[in-house]
Amino acid sequence: MTASLDDVARAQRARRTSFNEASARTRLELMLDAGSLVEFIGPEQREVSPHLRIFDLPEQFDDGIVVGHARLEGSPVFVAAQEGRFMGGAFGEVHGAKLTGLLRAAREIGSIPVLILFDTGGVRLQEANAGELAIAEIMRAVMEARTAGAKVIGLIGGRSGCYGGGGLIAGCCSALAVSEPGRIAVSGPEVIETNRGVEEFDSRDRALVWRTMGGKHRRLLGAADVFADDTVQDFREAALELIGLVGAFGPDRLKAEHERLAGRLRRFGTCKDAVDIWTAEGVADAETVPDLPADRFIALADRIGRTSRDAR
Amino acid sequence: MEDLNFQHQVRARASGTRRSAVVGVVASGNLEVLVERALPDAQCVVDIRTAAMGFGEIWSAVIGDFVERYSPGGLKFSINDGGARPDTVSLRLAQAVRLIAEDGQ
Predict the structure, then answer these.
(1) Which domains are seen in chain A, by residue range?
(2) Which of A8, A30, A252, A292 could form a disulfide bond with A14, CB atoms 3.0-4.6 angstroms apart?
(3) A-interface mutation test, from B2, B30, B32, B36, most A Cβ less than 10 A away
(4) Contact B1 A56 (CB under 8 A)
């Protein structure tokens, strides 16, 4: 019974550990069944980036991502966790190849779900072409794994959020869980302001950034399926919930998703601000949403209901 | 980047059975330490790649103090440094020794 005692200790620590502040390795250690993680291509193999040295930049032995297999509530899972503090969690050649390989293993087996703990600013600029190719390969690998029957669950609550190509990959997942500090988008605030002007998006207006890209808005829009409080244990429970919730994948589900997105554009396309969208969704006192504590926000989001109509 | 290497003769073998462990991340003011049980019992090696140039003397003092205090015999330390302060380096080295002293793989 040592294992279950270990799991009680794990759960206690997971409940008081901020997902946002924890490292990728700590997130995995506390989220998965105690001692169950077996890493593929661990740091001792020193599969570092072949590009960073050219730029005289420091490398990390795992190239900023941990991949492996483990158990969640006794069942097998594949896992990947990005380290958002190394190069902003950005995708490089090796980093991306590790995730592609994991997803292809999931495709071959078909029945084992994949958890991706995103924490990324997008593609690493120093290895841009290799990184962009990695994003394309990963998106394809996600869709192939889903087609083969594997559920691919994205968990987003890290400091770097989920931006750039990471946002695209998240869009391919079966389901997403997000916490308030988790942000999901493709272009970041500064990128939008640089390209479209400050009238389009004022990147220094932090409240605007959070209510446009933050976890609460993503949950209310239906992009994320579950809202998690910022603890590792909450993300574990969200992952378990989503593994139970996700249904079979096929062309019908993709069509339903396209219809949901078209409907969203029709309903909210003219809204100038996230608050307008929440009001249109029927949220009373929509401007108070950013201040709601997690439990009251989850109750509100559940009341509005899953917007997915069998699609995300 | 600057590469540094330190080799020490130590009093005793580090305890525990784990083969390797990693602590920390490579970020500004931070570092990762990969420790492996890969050497004869009386030896300790520390390989460092650091983004901060010209601090070899301080590294030498920090590593010397660490080896004296913990006697990490049989261990090889590989460090990727993002410009961490000496106290952070000492902390990570101590964490690495504690982690590899645990039983298991």
Answers:
(1) 2-184+223-249 (3.90.226.10)
(2) A30
(3) B32
(4) yes
